Structures are given as structure tokens and as C-alpha cells.
User: Fold this.
Amino acid sequence: MSETRAAGPSALAGRAPGDFEPTPGQTIGPFYGFALPYEKGNELVPIGSARSVRLTGTVYDGHGEPVPDAMLEIWQADEHGRISAEPGSLRRDGFSFTGFGREATDDAGRYTFSTVDPGPTEEGAAPFISVVVFARGLLNRLFTRIYLPEDAAALANDPLLRSLEPERRATLIGRREADGGLRFDIRLQGDGETVFLQFPRNAD
Assistant:
């Protein structure tokens, strides 16, 4: 049986910095699916309460296959357009709306949140939910938005949506279902790829 030894300091001595190849950053592992979700993390409001809206969808990879071990975080205003500063996202009390939720996809790539339809944060603005996506193979998390579909005038005037071609714009607008819920599928690559945002502090 042959023996494999890790390269120690002596093996690296005398090598110039230019002799080393750059390597990619560490990708997310499947541990996210069981280590970071927490009890009622996907319940921004209690399921079935009068104000609750079901937000659901599927995360797909570049081949159109569901991603079973992704994790999503959402941030949003309440139904009156207020951005909450309430603590309690990690310990739900059933009363405080903090605007934050976290959920892992299931074996079929699906996620579900119990939340509210956000209101506009200023008059005439298009309401939206901010989304962060973590998944294996991603060197960094991805940022996107879910816009509510109802206010056509606000959507037409939104600066981000106006900067996109119609088919790209459509990837950011949720679909209202018959029961009043909101559906938003996320495609990481390929046909119909969801528009992802880049912020200056998260460009690396």
C-alpha cells in the first residue's frame, strides 16, 4: 500500500508567489440544510393567521433540475410598508413581525414561507421582497427580488425593472395563485435565469 503525505513547509520552501495557482473560494456544503434553518424560521407570521400569505416556489439549477439543498433568506417590509427593527427573528413569539425569514428547500427543491404582502415603502413605489440564495456550487450568495404583480403602474416606474428587457424583467415578478398565495421560482442559470443583483459591498 502506498503512503500519501501532505506537503509540509519543506516542500514549499523556495517557491516564489508566482509558482502557486489560485484556487476557488470554498463553496457552500450540504450542511446548510440542517445546521442553519431553525424552528419556525419560515414563519414571518403564524401559518393560517388572517394576514398570512403563502410564498412558495422551486429553486432550479442550470439544467432545470430542482436544487434539494439550497437555503433562502427573505427580508421585507410589512403590509403597511414599514421596515421592522423588532428583534425576535430567531425566536418567534407569534406576534412580532421582524421582516426576516430563513428556509431550506426540500428534496424537490421547494421552499415555503408564511408572510404578508409587503406594502410600498414610499408612495408610488413597487412593493418587493428581498431574497438571498445560498446553494452548493455558488462561490458567493446571490441576491434577487420578488415584486408583487398587482400594481402595473408601480412596476412600470420601478428603476430596476425599467433597466431590464421585458423577458428579464418577468423573472423578478411573482405570480399570484388562486388561493391568494405568491409563487416565485428561482432559476440559477440557463433558460429563464433569474435576474440577480450585485451590490458594491458584495462584489467579491
